[in-house]
Write a structure and sequence with these properties.
By secondary structure, this protein is mostly helical. The chain is built from five helices and no strands.
């Protein structure tokens, strides 16, 4: 009884008004009750994609056509007691409307998921292209620097041409200057 009085006294201020209970900020809020059932959006998305893929096949069109033909034939030629959808086939119209009303949002959901995947793929492709362009520009600058550096380096062809020029000059000097005999050197 004393504990209840202390709790009541703590929850009322000096004016006697009741204060709302304090919430602890160091602890998460308790989960709220939801009116709608919980579901996994990824599982639902995969399910809608499977349905959309099936609705876009020839198999679906063939099966749907067969069912409609059987439905119409049964309700025209079956005994009156066994017919379940008399002319003008109101129940068939209702079933096709229900099928369309569920198929359209599922197809749209599948398209939205595909758009999201495409957007991510395009973003990754764009980033890869930017990296490739940056790498190409870097390599182009490096090749240009190497070419400029090679312009200052003596290449094999340049050395060969210089040696050939020297040999030609020496031969020209031998022709112009009389050669001294080898006997004087001995």
């Amino acid at each position: 009884m004393a504990a209840e009085e202390r709790t009541k006294a703590a929850s009322t201020g000096s004016s006697g008004m009741v204060r709302p209970p304090r919430f602890r900020l160091d602890q998460p809020k308790s989960p709220r009750r939801r009116l709608l059932p919980e579901y996994d959006p990824e599982a639902f998305g995969r399910f809608s994609e499977r349905i959309a893929r099936f609705l876009g096949t020839g198999r679906f069109i063939v099966w749907m056509t067969l069912i409609i033909i059987l439905w119409v034939l049964w309700n025209i030629f079956a005994p009156t007691a066994l017919r379940f959808d008399e002319y003008p086939f109101i129940f068939l119209t209702l079933m096709l409307s229900l099928q369309a009303s569920y198929a359209a949002p599922l197809i749209l959901l599948a398209q939205n998921r595909q758009d999201d995947r495409d957007r991510v793929t395009h973003e990754q492709d764009r980033k890869q292209n930017e990296r490739s362009i940056a790498d190409t520009e870097f390599l182009t600058r490096e090749i240009a620097a190497l070419r400029m550096g090679l312009g200052e380096v003596a290449t094999r062809d340049w050395i060969r041409s210089e040696l050939e020029d020297l040999v030609r000059d020496l031969e020209d000097r031998r022709v112009l200057l009389p050669s001294e005999s080898d006997e004087g050197d001995r």
